[in-house]
Amino acid sequence: MRGAARHAILAVLLFAALAAGAKLPVADFSQPPDMTDDTQAALYLTLETWRIPVADANRLAVEPRLTPEDFRVAVFLASQAGVAPAEIWTARSSGRKWADVAAKYDVPLDQIMPTVARDYGPPYGKAYGFWRNHPKGRGDRSFLVDDVEYIALVDLQTLLKASGKPADEVISALVAGETFTRWSSSLYRQKHGRPDAPGKGSGKAKAPAGKSRGK
C-alpha cells in the first residue's frame, strides 16, 4: 500500500507541475504542423486518428494549463463519448482523475484495455491484471486506474489504430524504449509524405519495423 500511495502522490505532483507551466504547442489545427516538431506531429496524428473536428480541437487548444497528454486523452474520450473535447476537459478541470472522467461519460475500461499475450508490467501491467482478474466487472465504471496508466493506455489505443499493428508488438516496442511521441510523429510524417523529416531532439524519426498504413 505504501508503494501504491507513493505512486499516486507522485502522479498528482507531476500533474500539478506540468499543468502549472503548460501550454499546448499548437494554437490552430487548421494550419499544418511543424514537421520537425515531434510533439506537434503527435498531436495532429491523435486528432486525425480519432476524427475530431478541427474547430472542436481549436476550442480545446486554448484551454489554460492543458498539456499534450491532456489533449490526447480528451480527444480520445470525446470520440468515444460523442461529446466535444472541451466538455471532457471541463470535467477533468473539476479535479477528477482521467478514469473518473471516463466513468462519467460511460467509457469503460474495456475500450482502452488491449488483448495481449502476457503481462508487460507498468504502466500496462497493473491495470491489465485488475481487468483480467475481475471478469464480472468488465465494462463496469468501477474500474479506476491512475492518470499515468490511463494516459499510457489511451496513447496505446492511438498507436494501435494509427499503425494497424497488433497490441503485443506495439507494447513490446514501447517497453523496449520507443515513445508514443516519437512513434506517432513518425506515423504522421509517413501519412503526409514526409517520412524523412527529422524530429526535434530525436534525430531522424522512424517508426519501428514496417511501414504504417496510409489513409
Topology:
Elements: H1 2-20, H2 38-49, H3 54-61, H4 68-81, H5 85-93, H6 98-104, H7 125-132, H8 147-163, H9 167-175, H10 180-191, E1 198-199, E2 203-204
Antiparallel strand pairs: 1-2
Description:
By secondary structure, the chain is mostly helical. It has one domain. Helix content is 53%, strand content 2%. The chain has 10 helices and 2 strands; from the N terminus they run ααααααααααββ. The protein has helices at residues 2-20, 38-49, 54-61, 68-81, 85-93, 98-104, 125-132, 147-163, 167-175, 180-191, and strands spanning 198-199, 203-204. The protein has a two-stranded antiparallel ribbon with strand order 1-2. The radius of gyration is 17 Å and the shape is globular.
What's the end-to-end separation, in Å? 46 Å
The main sheet comes to: 2 strands, antiparallel
Beta content: under 5%
Q: What is the strand arrangement across the widest sheet?
A: 1-2
What is the gyration radius calculated from CA atoms? 17 Å
Descriptive labels:
about 220 residues, mainly alpha, two-stranded antiparallel sheet, 10 helices, 2 strands, about 55% helix, about 0% strand, globular, disordered N terminus, disordered C terminus
In short:
The protein is mainly α and 215 residues long.
